[in-house]
């Protein structure tokens, strides 16, 4: 197993992918995670299977920069099979903060709207996010973690850049549903990629991305 500098390109890409995966699994309208720094990285070459990265890193909450957690993860990229999502195993040290109260407040606020929520350009061109849109952005952050995980390879590093458009979809059950068009930034190629995703959320059941698809570039206009 080869020790890598924590700032090494492939190591930082693998840590960013692990962060996206953790955000998808543990993110919510009250929580989102970004990579603060990589403490240690090693790469294992598994014959005929692929490259496995062993990582130790620190995440910080997108809402509270002082709120951090230590994580370890293993990320396996499958050799010659870029259609297959990487395998990610992770461990979070300690307990995550309880956000039930914030979740219920957001859920009740959306349920009580007279008209379905609709918004665009979050954050705006100055980087501002209205406070009432923070949970909508955090939900997109978590859902985009699923899209990033499913579409990542050893040579990519995606991050949510902006919500281009979001519209709430009326439902007859207890779930909230949102249709998003997001912009993903791919750091290696510097491409901005429009992506559509339909997201379900319920305080008791978490987040589910029911459909997602890459959009044509003219969706940027």
UniProtKB/TrEMBL annotation:
Coiled coil stretches, renumbered: none
Keywords attached to this entry: Acetylation, Cytoplasm, Heparin-binding, Inflammatory response, Protease inhibitor, Repeat
Matching PANTHER family: LATEXIN
UniProt entry tagged with the keyword Cytoplasm: yes
Classification via InterPro entries: CYSTATIN_LXN, Cystatin_sf, Latexin
Protein name per Swiss-Prot or TrEMBL: Latexin
Biological process annotations from GO: detection of temperature stimulus involved in sensory perception of pain; inflammatory response
Keyword Thylakoid: no
Entry function: Hardly reversible, non-competitive, and potent inhibitor of CPA1, CPA2 and CPA4. May play a role in inflammation.
Molecular function GO terms recorded: heparin binding; metalloendopeptidase inhibitor activity
Main subcellular location of this protein, as a coarse class: cytoplasm
Subcellular location: Cytoplasm
UniProt record similarity statement: Belongs to the protease inhibitor I47 (latexin) family.
GO cellular component: cytoplasm; extracellular space
Gene3D superfamilies linked: 3.10.450.10
Domain Cystatin LXN-type residue range list: 1-98, 118-221
A Pfam family per the record: LXN
């Amino acid at each position: 197993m080869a020790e890598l500098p924590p700032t090494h390109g492939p190591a930082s890409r693998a840590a960013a992918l692990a962060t996206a995966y953790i955000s998808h699994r543990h993110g919510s309208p009250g929580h989102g995670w970004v990579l603060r720094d990589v403490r240690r990285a090693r790469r294992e070459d598994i014959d005929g299977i692929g490259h496995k990265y062993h990582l130790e890193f620190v995440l910080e909450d997108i809402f509270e920069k002082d709120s951090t957690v230590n994580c370890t993860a293993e990320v396996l990229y499958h050799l010659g099979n870029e259609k297959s999502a990487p395998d990610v195993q992770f461990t979070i040290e300690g307990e995550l903060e309880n956000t039930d109260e914030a979740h219920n407040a957001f859920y009740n606020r959306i349920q009580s709207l007279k008209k379905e929520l609709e918004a665009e350009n979050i954050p705006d061109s100055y980087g501002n996010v209205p406070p009432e849109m923070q949970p909508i952005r955090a939900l997109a952050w978590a859902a985009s973690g699923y899209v990033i995980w499913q579409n990542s390879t050893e040579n990519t590093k995606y991050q949510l850049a902006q919500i281009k458009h979001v519209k709430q979809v009326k439902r007859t059950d207890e779930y909230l549903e949102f249709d998003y068009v997001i912009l993903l930034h791919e750091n290696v190629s510097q491409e901005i990629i429009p992506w559509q995703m339909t997201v379900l959320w319920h305080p008791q059941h978490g987040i589910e991305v029911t459909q997602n698809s890459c959009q044509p570039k003219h969706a940027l206009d």
